[in-house]
Amino acid sequence: MALLVLLVLLGLGLEPIQDQGQDHLRLRHELRHGGTRNSTSCKQGGEERVREVVGARCEEVVTIKVPGAAQLVVMSVEVERKFVCNADTLKTLEEIGAVCLGQRQFCDQYFDTPKFDLTLKDMWLRKRKGCWELKCPTTADKAEETSGEQSKAAAMCSRYKEITNLPEIQLRVKEDSETETSPSQEEESWMSRSNLVCFAEFTTVRRSFTLEEEGVQVDLDEADFGFHVGEIEVLLPEGGDVQSALEKIERTAGKLGLTGDKRVEGKMHAYLRRNHPEHFARLLSEHIL
């Protein structure tokens, strides 16, 4: 029943973004709007809607009651290339016709065991705006390895599977750590039994832009520890066309005039190098960073 309802909602353009457990499912619907930033919410029956308008984009988040929704696992694949941004980046974005979607601020908290069971497997557990997310590495497709140009494009990008279903996250954490735990909706109890501690916390101010290239978003991030980085991102459903995403990112990088053949470090990379050099060194030795 839950799967049938989800398929219908996807057909209507609603994107699942967070399974809240029990029988509630959050979905996001992107609309076009010409106004400025504003936010409204309303409740009707078993449905709650929160609509936020940022520049030309309007996202409507709908929380609905769906029997069996807790059994659904919502996953997507994030394909991303980071780049060094500077004072000229905004001018370049304007010149290539990028549309600013607005600016927002969020705080990220990252968790692991004292032995780094998760991050040493390139798994990143974080909490953002009250929602848990687990980023896990994905493997490259064989088709990407047959061409030098394709391999170069793939080497410049990171690729992670994003899991937002809390029971699934708890299961993955149990499998990849040395702790014994069982799924629980009680946050403190689950974290304690899983031996999870916060090893990084920082706030980011993000300005987002969209291009004519469908599905491509450019983010300019400024972290509160004095670090700036740009990101070109394409978000795919699990099993989506990764090669197409890499090509879109490569074209966007060309429009931005990006050069170089080495990956640019991200916020977490820089944070650990500055604040937790021992953890950073372990990840380097295991070729995670």
Describe this structure in words.
It is found in: Cytoplasm. Its cofactor is Mg(2+). The chain is α+β, with helices and mostly antiparallel strands and 289 residues long. It folds into 2 domains: 2-71, no CATH class; 75-285, Hypothetical Protein Pfu-838710-001. It is 26% helix and 39% strand. It has helices spanning 2-11, 87-95, 148-155, 166-175, 187-193, 242-255, 267-275, 277-285; strands spanning 15-19, 24-32, 38-44, 47-54, 57-65, 75-83, 99-112, 124-128, 131-137, 158-163, 197-210, 216-223, 227-237.
Task: Give the topology.
Blueprint: H1 2-11, E1 15-19, E2 24-32, E3 38-44, E4 47-54, E5 57-65, E6 75-83, H2 87-95, E7 99-112, E8 124-128, E9 131-137, H3 148-155, E10 158-163, H4 166-175, H5 187-193, E11 197-210, E12 216-223, E13 227-237, H6 242-255, H7 267-275, H8 277-285
Antiparallel strand pairs: 1-2, 2-5, 3-4, 4-5, 6-10, 6-13, 7-8, 7-11, 8-9, 9-10, 11-12, 12-13
Function: Hydrolase highly specific for thiamine triphosphate (ThTP).
Organism: Dissostichus mawsoni (Antarctic cod)
Subunit structure: Monomer.
Concise overview:
This protein is α+β, with helices and mostly antiparallel strands and 289 residues long.
CATH level-1 class of the largest domain = Mainly Beta
Query: From N to C, what is the helix and strand string?
Result: HEEEEEEHEEEHEHHEEEHHH
How far is the first residue's CA from the last residue's CA? Answer: 42 Å
Rg on CA atoms, Å: 20 Å
Strand content: 35-45%
Main sheet overview: 8 strands, antiparallel, barrel
Helix tally? 8
Adjacency order of strands in the biggest sheet: 6-10-9-8-7-11-12-13
**In one word, what is the shape?**
globular
| Unreliable residue runs | 2-15, 17-66, 141-146
